Amino acid sequence: KIFTTLLGMDHLLHLPLSVDPASNFADCISGLVGLAGEYNGLVSLHVSTRLAHRMACQMLDIEEPTDEEVEDALGEVANVLAGAFKRYLSEESLAIRLSTPSIVSGKQYVIHVAKKPEVMTLLFDLEDEWFIAALAVERE
Fold it and tell me: For residue 19, is pLDDT > 60?
């Protein structure tokens, strides 16, 4: 629902495949938001650079976003996603705090979660693109 409302992704398809969110990424951008409190962990959103540009164009209603605008847009999507996971995990909104979104991008990089928390990943397909949304948490 977040991706449809925020980004107008009406033709989004959830693929029920198991995906490791701590993996190698090539020509991608990742938005990361930390969770602390009743649950500790990380919400991550991994998208191709091309799709990140499309998302920024849709969110900002512009045709050619700058790199900074793309990063800001992806950070905002990751933040909204983290807020949704936060509401899912805890009825008491103050029981979990969210960090400021961080962005990782590059031609090739690896993201590792230090501990082995419980991980839920969602793989989505949007026409010719894919992206991953993931939640890695451990209960305090």
Answer: no
